[in-house]
Amino acid sequence: MTTKGEYIRGDNGYLSRAAQRGLFELPERREFLVRHVGPPPRRVLDLGCAGGDVAVMLTRLGYQVTGVEMNRRMAEEARRRGIEVVEHDLDEPLPLPDGCADAVHACEVIEHLFDTEGFLREVRRLLVPGGVLILSTPNLNSLDNRGRVLFGLPAPMWGAWPGDVHGGHIRVFNKRKIVELLQRTGFAVERIAGMNDSRAAAPLSRLPTLSRMLLIKAVKAGGQGEVQQRPP
Fold first, then answer.
1. How far is Cα 148 from Cα 146, in angstroms, rounded to an integer?
2. Domain interval for residue 36
3. The domain that contains 211 carries what CATH number?
4. Which candidate among 8, 30, 59, 152 keeps its CA 20 to 30 Å from the CA of 103?
5. Are 70 and 78 in contact (CB under 8 A)?
């Protein structure tokens, strides 16, 4: 029997360079990040940095980037490309000081974590007051998923196929629930956009509730309690 940590740290948890590049080139992902992360030189934590594609892009734009990655092989890839990497499980508190980052990038990460609320509270700890979180996650209520449910088909991103083992998606979100979670953990949500790669990408991207993925900008709010705000 293999634990989640053993699986992700080992060869089975490695994403091929093609798979990493595919994530990097998802429509609107890079543009949303650069548009909302704030001007360089800012200190950015890239959580789940894989082989460093996003970190390298941000470094070339003038940002000071530290990556966090659990898979040893991908962490080494990022280091060979000049990125400082902390090898760590994002389900555990990070060995980094309070307020060490002006911005955090965590795209396609939160759906893999058990303690999502604990993760976001840890991200909040790491950010300076007013610091920015850029987050993305698949959308449970996407138009594709609605069609699959209607016709009795499996939703392949949500564990409904034999190949989804330790490294798969274990949490599901729609727009309302990710906003509620962010507000509960001390963030104010400023912007939500849809991300799609189908022929209907342009119109769907204006409708995040139906989009394949959600792109979110949230800001660390003052105080320690829940944030009350109208949904963006």
1. 5
2. 4-220
3. 3.40.50.150
4. 8
5. no
